[in-house]
Amino acid sequence: MKLPVLAAALFALGLTQAQAQSCEGNFSVVGTPMLTGLTYKTWDIVQKRAPARVLKDLGAAVSAEGFADMRIDNATSSVLAIQETSGSGRPQTLRITARKSGSSTRVDAVFVVQQGQVAPEGYVRDALCRVISGAQG
Question: Against a cut of 0.85, is the pTM above it?
Fold first, then answer.
């Protein structure tokens, strides 16, 4: 009888720790540099703010990071933008979504570079987390 209670407590503790993890701690990269495209991902929770307000602030933060052709898509609750810094004419894409999560908003950021391109992992992580932090209010 005590085992299910212990398991439930450990599960709840695990959820609390996962929810408390920072943007930097949620960061990951998928792909092989130069051989495949790279997908940089992270997410964080913006406490007690509605997705519509978060989305507006995300747009301002994306602009501040130097992305071009940015648009806010209210229908999909996302910010879409491109960045071309390599001189190749092959843009990197950014998509950030803001979704309701309880009384807060979960923000997911995905930055994709094409095959043959690379972006410094630390710089991308810091830039994505600065954007998400810009929505904290």
Answer: no
* CATH (domain of 67): 3.30.530.50
* Parent domain of 63: 31-134
Residue 28: strand, helix, or coil: strand
Is 119's pLDDT higher than 80? yes
**In angstroms, rounded to a whole number, what is the distance separating the alpha carbons of residues 25 and 125?**
10
Q: What distance in Å separates the CA atoms of residue 118 and residue 16, rounded to the nearest whole number?
A: 34
CB 82 within 8 A of CB 92: yes
pLDDT tens by residue, 18-67: 456 899 999 999 999 889 999 999 999 999 999 999 999 999 999 999 88
Q: Is residue 18 part of a domain?
A: no
pLDDT at 68: 84
Is the residue at 19 inside a domain? no
| Two tokens, residue 89 | 């004419």
Sheet holding 78-83, edge to edge: 28-30, 38-46, 104-113, 92-101, 78-83, 68-73
Strands of 20-67, DSSP E: 28-30, 38-46
The rounded distance, in Å, linking the Cα atoms of 130 and 137 is 12
